[in-house]
Automatic annotation (TrEMBL):
Organism listed in the record: Fermentimicrarchaeum limneticum
Protein name: Protein translocase subunit SecY
Keywords: Cell membrane, Membrane, Protein transport, Translocation, Transmembrane, Transmembrane helix, Transport
Membrane-protein topology: Multi-pass membrane protein
The organism's taxonomic lineage, starting at the top: Archaea, Candidatus Micrarchaeota, Candidatus Fermentimicrarchaeales, Candidatus Fermentimicrarchaeaceae, Candidatus Fermentimicrarchaeum
Subunit structure as annotated in this protein's UniProt entry: Component of the Sec protein translocase complex. Heterotrimer consisting of alpha (SecY), beta (SecG) and gamma (SecE) subunits. The heterotrimers can form oligomers, although 1 heterotrimer is thought to be able to translocate proteins. Interacts with the ribosome. May interact with SecDF, and other proteins may be involved.
Length: 482
């Protein structure tokens, strides 16, 4: 299947014009800062017709750069999902496209934009109709609240439109950053959201709580103050661990065939697929939670048994409380709010209300689910995106590189790389899965997935800044590397 039939629609989509010249570094920083300011403004604006609620879904917000109830309720979720869907379709050959061809690549990017816009409206509708973002006149405590426009349906449509436009604006802000700024807009939004959560959590919750315990005095004042600061300590541990892992690598020696004695090393990082496995696993879990909100209150009986209750059970607030999807997602109480004593007691001694399964089983099931999903996605990703041993061997052969002491044959390079890439992919996927689960279970500020993403994003942004600075110092290098 090809995507040429979408060309008439793609031509109608607005597009950010590419710059006529490469913007200087200072100008790129200004554009990036401006986009970041717009993101934070939208982060604090609420759609007209939305009924104020207590905000939650921190896990979802971290990975989608969103804030439930604001204009960016769906965040970058539609953009990421559109990219994942199309990449997987191309990798599995459901869609036949050559992304090395400029015209087909342009069609692919247009199709991705179109799908992201469609998903923006779809996800916005889910948030509204599942009452994750309630509108005026729906479930409000006061009986005399009149729906906006005097019609409940029109109010819902108006709120959906605003939420969808929030994600579409992020889509075009991402395009601005890609063409005029530094790095990726999606990465920038994720890092900004996580950083804001860490700062707000530290200065808005942890420090006031610790100071309150110290002000009360008594024998338990200091221990309670230390416990209050543990989420920040756990976030720091995850940050340092991930930063250290980013520097771990295996280097395969290579030489140029035509230049005797000249060569280098091909680095295979421990986090070879970066944080892609945990991004995909987290995105899947996010959709599990949305599915649970959709079906959790419905019924489907087979032999007198409600099958839906085995899949998902939600409480009166729409939060997952039991079922298969509950045990696969990090639906735990927030230890920052509940306190670590209450949190640990809940995990060790509580059980689900519907099936009476101990909560510590939930902990084990979630860790296993995260690790298994990361391994599956990590392995699948390298095989569908040209990162496997065979693809890398072909690229190195085309560059005139070979393994010292062996004849020029891509099968030789592939055999050497095959000793490392599959194993490192599995080990790296297990590592990021365990680290994300550890942070989620300990209540680390920013969540495990958010911290992992932020470390990788900041590292990539630092490398981009160094490269841009080098290009400005030596302009001829930009022409040399294209």
């Amino acid at each position: 299947m090809a995507l040429e039939f979408l060309k008439p629609i793609i031509r109608l989509l607005p597009e950010v014009k590419a710059p006529d010249r490469a913007p200087p570094l200072r100008e790129k920083i200004y554009w990036t800062a401006a986009v970041l300011i717009i993101f934070f403004v939208m982060y604090h604006i609420y759609p007209i017709g939305r009924y104020p609620i207590q905000e939650g879904f921190n896990f979802v917000q971290m990975i989608t750069a969103s804030r439930i109830g604001s204009l960016i309720t769906a965040g970058i979720g539609p953009i990421v999902l559109a990219s994942i869907f199309l990449q997987l379709f191309i990798g599995s050959k459901i869609i036949e496209m050559d992304l090395n061809d400029k015209e087909q690549k342009r069609i692919f990017q247009g199709a991705q934009k179109l799908l992201a816009i469609i998903l923006s409206f779809f996800e916005a509708a889910i948030y509204v109709y599942t009452k994750a973002v309630p509108v005026m006149g729906v479930g409000v405590p006061a009986g005399n609240v009149i729906p906006f426009f005097g019609s409940l349906f029109m109010t819902e449509i108006f709120v959906i439109l605003q939420l969808a436009m929030g994600s579409i604006i992020l889509l075009y802000l991402d395009e601005i950053v890609a063409k005029y700024g530094i790095g990726s807009g999606i990465s920038l939004f994720i890092a900004a959201g996580v950083s804001l959560a860490v700062v707000q959590g530290t200065f808005g919750v942890l420090i006031p709580s610790a100071m309150g315990y110290l002000a009360e005095g008594g024998a338990t004042a200091v221990p309670l103050a230390i416990l209050a600061m543990l989420p920040l300590a756990f976030a720091f541990i995850v940050f340092i661990t991930c930063s250290y892992a980013e520097g771990m690598r295996v280097e395969v020696p290579l030489v140029f065939e035509r230049v005797r004695g000249v060569g280098g090393r091909y680095p295979i990082k421990f986090l070879y697929v970066s944080n892609i496995p945990v991004i995909l696993a987290a995105a899947l879990m996010m959709n599990f939670q949305l599915i649970a909100r959709t079906i959790g209150t419905s019924s489907f009986y087979i032999g007198g048994v409600n099958i839906v209750s085995f899949i998902a059970v939600v409480d009166s607030s729409g939060r997952l409380s039991d079922g298969l999807l509950y045990f696969m997602t990090p639906s735990f109480p927030n230890p920052v709010v509940a306190g670590y004593g209450t949190y640990v007691d809940f995990l060790l001694h509580s059980s689900t209300q519907f099936f009476y399964i101990p909560e510590f089983f939930h902990v084990i099931a979630y860790i296993l689910s995260m690790v298994i999903l990361c391994v599956i996605f990590g392995t699948f990703w390298i095989e569908t995106t040209g990162m496997g041993a065979a693809d890398i061997a072909a690229q190195l052969k085309d560059s005139g590189l070979l393994v010292p002491g062996f004849r020029r044959d891509p099968r030789v390079i592939e055999k050497v790389l095959d000793k490392y890439i599959p194993m490192i992919t599995i080990l790296g996927s297990i590592f990021v899965g365990l680290l994300a689960a550890f942070a989620d279970l300990t209540g680390a500020l920013g969540t495990g997935t958010g911290i992992l993403l932020t470390v990788s994003i900041l590292n990539n942004m630092y490398e981009t800044l160094k490269r841009e600075q080098m290009f400005e110092t030596y302009p001829a290098l930009r022409n040399l590397v294209g």
